[in-house]
Amino acid sequence: MRDVGKTFANGVTALAGFSLDVEEGEFLSLLGPSGCGKSTVLRMIAGLTAPTQGEITHASPQAYRGSGRALDFVFQEPTLMPWATVYENVALPLNIANLSPAEARPRVDDAIARVGLAAFAGAYPRELSGGMKMRVSIARAIVGRPRILLMDEPFAALDEITRFKLNNDLLELWRSLRVTVVFVTHSVFESVYLSSRIVVMTPRPGRAFADLSFDTPYPRPAGFRTSADYAANCRVTTEALYDAMGSAAA
Amino acid sequence: MRAAAGETNGWRILRMLLPVAILALGLVAWEAVVVIQKIPPYILPGPLQVWRTLLADWTLLSESLVVTLITTFEGLALAFFGGVLLAVLFHQSRLLEYSLYPYAVILQVTPIVAVAPLLLIYLPQHAAVLACAWIVAFFPVLANTTLGLNSVDRNLRDLFRLYRASRWQVLRRLELPAALPYILGGLKIAGGLALIGAVVAEISAGSAGAGSGLAYRIAESSYRLNIPRMFAALLLLSAAGIVIFFTLSLVSHLILRRWHESALTREG
Lengths: 250, 268
Prior knowledge:
The complex is a heterodimer.
Chain A: E1 2-7, E2 18-23, E3 27-31, H1 38-46, E4 56-57, H2 61-65, E5 71-74, H3 86-96, H4 101-114, H5 130-142, E6 148-152, H6 160-177, E7 180-185, H7 188-194, E8 197-201, E9 208-213, H8 228-249
Parallel strand pairs in A: 3-7, 3-8, 5-6, 6-7
Antiparallel strand pairs in A: 1-2, 1-4, 8-9
Helix pairs in contact in A: 3-4, 3-5, 4-5, 7-8
Chain B: H1 2-36, H2 47-56, H3 58-92, H4 94-109, H5 112-122, H6 125-149, H7 154-162, H8 167-207, H9 214-223, H10 227-256
């Protein structure tokens, strides 16, 4: 699948002349300062916000319209239904698609097991920690087997140790599910650790400023965080981010 | 730790004892004034006599209590379903909301005491009493449900859109559950109001010469200068109001305790 996203002005002009091709199977991070329109890009790919100019095309529209989910979304907050159990929350996309409970059950169980919450299927969100709630949110996003997973700063509200753990688990999911991930973040370190490719955006109105590809092989062990390779990638990315900020100030 | 626990325990007991002590003090003072001043019971009966009357007239009064309670619950049930239904309809159709909402407000702000005699002219008595209970009780349910339906998490709404949920699915799986705490809050207010509506209508109907609810007993006793029975009936009405409030609070707690913040205990 190949998404050609071209998007433009939006009231306060969150984005101007933003172009992006998402390659199938990649882990793409959108990195940029707050308010540069990263989230808007995701919302437009998801069809939640219409672009005022330009257009977004999906390589296989029938997959987008079809019964299987073309894409799914993980918000910055866990965005769970507090009145429903973990199981019911994860089953939501299948329920809305009118799958029978018998059809849904193995898929829901599988998704919950993949995020390591099998023991908590009957728990209510308020009984879970912030990291566990985010895991539920991710389980809900993968239960429909999406081709593209859109993630909007999903770990921004978590403490760093929880975040590291979830980063590793997310990479594991990405590899085992062969899903394309578009990941919005304002953390250089997080994007470098996770991504096969990083698009650095300028401050508002957002444009793609730099397009960096990293060939550090996966799986990336925890040791990668302390390697020289990682440090070098972080430096390149940070420089690109500084330049992006500077280009707007000028 | 133990000292702190003991303190909170003592505090809790004090909180329960204080109102009881005030009540006892008031009753003793009341009885004393009546006895010392030799006030005749047709002007002011003492609490002991009110209690004796309550026991003596129990058969009559308890029947009336049941009548009033049934009316109140019928009115409350109608107000609950009517209020929720109207709120849902308003939520689905702006046109409907704009057309009807002003009239809901007018019904709410017009004093029910003034409306009840009119209703009694045009409706059979039971229907009129029910209508009064409904008119005063449905608005808090309507207003709270509307607030609840509009308070849905925006991201969850987006998620349902992403999943291409139908309007019905959004309503059933998202909006109604999200509004539930608000609806139950409205129901709690409506419970007390339904009782007021029923009483007002009974008093109006009572002056027209028919009826058998508690409020009718009060009106009737007033004509007969049976002041102790007025007090006894009033006591029962008060008790009914308290029971309704606590019942609805309990229902609300049982429904919400698994997930809503309001039902969280502070001990954890």
